[in-house]
Amino acid sequence: MKPAFRIIRAALPLDLVLVIASTFRRLHAEHSELRAKGQTGIKVTSAPDMIQEWLQGIRPGMRLLPSSCRLQTPDGAGALELHQDAGVIGGGTNPNPMQVIWLPLTPIDDATPSLEICPIIPPRHYWHQPDAAGYHITREADAAKMPLVAITKMNLGDIIVMSPYALHRSYVRPWHTKERLSLDLRFLPSWADRRDRIVGRWMHTYHRGRRLCAMALSCVPASKKRT
Ligand SMILES: O=C(O)CCC(=O)C(=O)O
Predict the structure, then answer these.
(1) CA 60 – ligand 1 centroid, Å
(2) Atom 4 in ligand 1: which residue has the minimum CA distance?
(3) Is 126 exposed, middle or buried (0-12, 13-18, 19+ CB in 10 A)?
(4) 3 beta partners
(5) Which tens digits make up the pLDDT trace of 183-208?
(6) Closest residue by CA, ligand 1 atom 3
(7) Closest Cα to residue 153, out of 114, 111, 108?
(8) Which parts of the chain have pLDDT scores under 50?
(9) pTM for the complete prediction?
């Protein structure tokens, strides 16, 4: 059975991770208003160059999807509940090979919030809904029954490669005392359509319908048009 995730140790050079960490730490400090809104993550719109280059080496032609850099405090504020990242490409109906990479920008030890992941790829994409801060999470009873493994030891440079269907959530416990900064990067091959087929088809029908409607209306004499 294919595992839902694997940890690759020393995948990235330490000096690269330190540079990325200081850049995002500064960004978090500059955008402290986000925390007031309950948002622990800031949007990442381009993968740091060396991560992108490294990824191109092993998975050529990948482009970044909506991703984030999270500052998780040990008090658990803004901790993300259970979810599957495949939601960003339309959930279970999108057949495209999405790749998720989670990497800590602070070392993970017993005192640091981390990630809990289900080691088995779940049988389906669960129903997701937005939480108070707008992040998509699942509260399905079936998802809550799945086993979770806490990742409690990661050095800078280690990464977690995850299936887009891997169920995971922030791991924060009362004994945690440190802050954690991390990146959750989602990639899709550049040729792949981000929208799932059903939404894509629906959008097409919807736009076509609107065009036909507009054409039909333009043929109706003005006096008969509804106002
Ligand atoms: O880093 C975390 O605590 C959760 C991040 C995550 O799962 C996500 O952004 O999808």
Answers:
(1) 24
(2) 170
(3) buried
(4) 120
(5) 999 888 887 766 654 444 443 343 44
(6) 170
(7) 108
(8) 197-227
(9) 0.81
